[in-house]
Amino acid sequence: MASILLAGFGGQGILFAGKQLVSAGMNAGKEVSWLPSYGPEMRGGTCNCSVNIEDDPVGSPLVTEPDILVAFNKPSYEKFYKSVKKGGRVFIDSSLIDSKCERTDITAEYIPATSLADISGFAKLANVVMLGYIIKKTGLFTKDYFVSCLKASAPKSKPELAELNLKAFEIGYSYDD
Amino acid sequence: MSKMLMKGNEAIAEAAIRAGCKLFFGYPITPQTELSEYMAKQMPKRGGLCLQAESEIAAINMVLGATASGARAITSSSSPGISLKSEGISYIAGSDLPCVIVNVQRGGPGLGGIQPAQSDYNQATKAPGHGDLHLIVLAPASVQEMASLTGLAFDLADQYRMPAMILADGALGQMMEPVDFEERTPRELPEKTWACCGHGNKREHNIINSLYIQPNVLEDIVKERFKRYEEVEKNEVMYEEYMCDDADIVIVAYGITARIAKSAVKEARAMGVKAGLFRCITLYPFPAKELEKLSHKVKRFVSVEMNMGQMVNDVKVATDCRVPVTHCGRTGGVIPTVKEITEEIMRLSAKKEG
Amino acid sequence: MVVFKKPHALTDVPFHYCPGCTHGIVHRLVAEVIDELGIEGETVGIAPVGCSVFAYNYFNCDMIEAPHGRAPAVATGVKRANPDKTVFTYQGDGDLAAIGTAETVHVGTRGENITIIFINNAIYGMTGGQMAPTTLLGQVTTTTPYGRDKHIQGNPIRICEMLATLDGTAYAERVSVDCVKNVVAAKKAIKKAFEIQQKKLGLSIVEVLSSCPTNWGLTPEKALEWLRANMIEHYPLGVYKDVTKEAE
Predict the structure, then answer these.
(1) What is the mean pLDDT of chain B?
(2) I want to staple B149 with a disulfide (CB 3.0 to 4.6 A). Which of A88, B138, C47, C186 is the partner?
């Protein structure tokens, strides 16, 4: 199905977003893997995570040529956009990345995820806004199915978290470029 | 039971608890720390103990004490920490004690790096400590195997009264995959009549030691231990063959690189090259006989590892140098890509024809 | 009337110790205490590396031989797996106060319910008379042939005083086995240490000033005189910590 690389700063919820995708894949019976960058750079520096959602068992968990790149900051975008597979897609948080993708063999999708989250009062949920947009544009999973996974992922002790995530997801899903 | 999404480090910890291990002794080190953290969270809730020791040396000796008294015990670390544990590992082996040691490898030598590596292959299989000794060395290639081989490691250790090591790496430790803790069928194991837990005035006192001052006595004991190793070599070899039947070029690999190599084999096949994969699941015992058999059919072996080629000689010896054995891989914490391995297969394939 | 009887907690294996060595006395005291408390079947002992490495052959309770200096860590493993058993280590000065310092300090910080019997004879015996961490200033050993010089080899370490500063240490006493009176006091201390462990109050340690006639190059009698004249001054006898007293 897809190899996905999500990249940005530590604290932007990159790993969480990746985990939501993998979790949805697993529950749908797909072969999945999730590999974070780890070590000191996680804390405040760059952060990325490799996600594979496949029909066959996953070979390398490390995504070096993603079908889908999700970039949450400019350094990550510049570092990785050249590695995206031909015919692939790059999702760009346009509130933090002012570049326009010059590659014509991949599709660039722009969404000001961070500003949209801020305006709506979900400052920490730009990652979930982005997930909404990714699901809409790629059709990796149906909306209803992914929403049900997202809902189930929140701890039972914090139902309000599930509500916030669903709202943020909807903002991304209904974003009209 | 349904599958759970878990990190490899956590899967080992959960599997150990499910295998009846109540005692974890460790010291923090990247990239295995999630294992200790999982133990710290779970052990108190499940009637066990997670104790952070003052050093790796203390941790392995706490394991020595716990296992000498008959309990299942585990410690985990990453490469530099395993070097520190090697003293205790030697004593545990020399005292015929079972235990499980986890090495979530990172790049070396020295402080090295923190990214995934397989450069402790020689340490694990050749010299995990001073003296004539072996560890059972299991090399998982997925989070699922991190779990299932951990349960097996405890059984093997108890059955043969020797330490067993899970030789993983930073990628396997850090990555999440679905894991199913299916009901494992534990082996039937001998009673630990040798354990030092108080004789209760019902038997002679037990002594656990590794000191034998008389050379001929020590020699006899080592030889007897090696008879047990022969049993391990006879009974416990594990491996996986993938498309080896008609293969010209067979990749030999273990752990994380084996699954990357599998993708490369598929790509090479798609380009018309008869490639195959031989994955070692046990590194000690080494699947020497199986490789020997294969060596009569194939044109060459390529050892794919995240080190400078530490397994190459083992493959050469196993196959009597019948066909060329070369190395392909990265080291220092770099994970080889499918493309790199595929290119090497294609290059060797072209070389053969040219 | 029985005048002399070997404690049950000692095996029939003859000691290998040199003539005049005080290990034999301390072994006997520990065994007598084990007998008196009736805990031989519930006790696990940890032998060190050093002269007393063969202690596992001499005590009738279950015995484990630890790597050099690691006896406290091994004891921790045994005790955590068997919280209701009595666990003791028997260690010399090189084992406990040099190579095993970290393990020693941290059973104190954790307050492990174990008992340490610490033999301080100011020298490495098994390897043939080298400097120990407890060797006195000016003392001649094979590795301090001109006498221990604090500017070169540093100063002798006082273990009881150090461990007494740790919150997890319940009992620390230094005794000597140079004369009958002191031997009686030593046994009392060892018994108290085991009792403190049984009450789960924390780490108990008894440091025993001992002699090494062979490596000191003295007759057994002269060695005891040397101990009295030199060691006790630097290592004063007494109780350095006793939580049962503090509670009173």
Answers:
(1) 97
(2) B138
